[in-house]
Amino acid sequence: MSYFLPHLTNGWQVDMAILSEEERVVVMRFGHDWDPQCMIMDETLYEVAEKVKNFAVIYLVDISEVPDFNTMYELYDPCTTMFFFRNKHIMIDLGTGNNNKVNWAIEDPQELIDMIEVVFRGARKGKGLVLSVKDYSTKYKY
């Protein structure tokens, strides 16, 4: 479903998307459209796009087509999702140790909506780091 979501094809478009949005969270999915993990994430993003349109905007960025941010944001994973608000990168504590980004595919649409909503509420209050509703650490898996 990635073809239904807006793609940013160069560094300038990515910068303008982050800079120009004043009232909503910018959700950026960095990865490849052909990657299976990104396909799952894109499906979830497409499902939630209409529901979160009042407080978030979603963009897709191909990391081969736009390599400008690969080293800056350490985009080494096949699928990475990041959040921005008023030209500021919003970090989210997921319990994984990496607060900068979500580097796996989220399959549950409600989980993603909750995550975006937490980022929006925290960012609107001026917080640079927000705490996720769900703990994604492996602490409870063993």
Question: Can you give me a brief rundown of this structure?
Answer:
This protein has helices at 11-20, 36-49, 109-124; strands spanning 7-8, 25-31, 56-62, 79-85, 88-93, 129-131.
Describe, in plain words, how this protein is organized in 3D:
It is built from three helices and six strands; from the N terminus they run βαβαβββαβ. A six-stranded mixed beta sheet has the order 1-3-2-4-5-6. The protein has helices spanning 11-20, 36-49, 109-124; strands at 7-8, 25-31, 56-62, 79-85, 88-93, 129-131. β5 (88-93), α3 and β6 form a beta-alpha-beta unit. With 142 residues, the protein is an alpha/beta fold. The model has no long low-confidence stretch (mean pLDDT 91). α2 (36-49) crosses α3. It starts with 6 loop residues before the first strand and ends in an 11-residue tail after the last strand.
Give the topology.
Layout: E1 7-8, H1 11-20, E2 25-31, H2 36-49, E3 56-62, E4 79-85, E5 88-93, H3 109-124, E6 129-131
**Estimated structural class:** alpha/beta
Average residue-wise pLDDT = 91
- Alpha-carbon distance between the termini? 35 Å
Give the helix tally: 3
- What is the molecular shape? globular
Helix content: 25-40%
Order of strands across the main sheet: 1-3-2-4-5-6
DSSP strand content? 15-25%
Radius of gyration: 14 Å
Give the total of beta strands.
6
> Poorly predicted ranges (pLDDT <50, ≥5 residues)?
none
Order of helices and strands: EHEHEEEHE
Main beta sheet, described? 6 strands, mixed
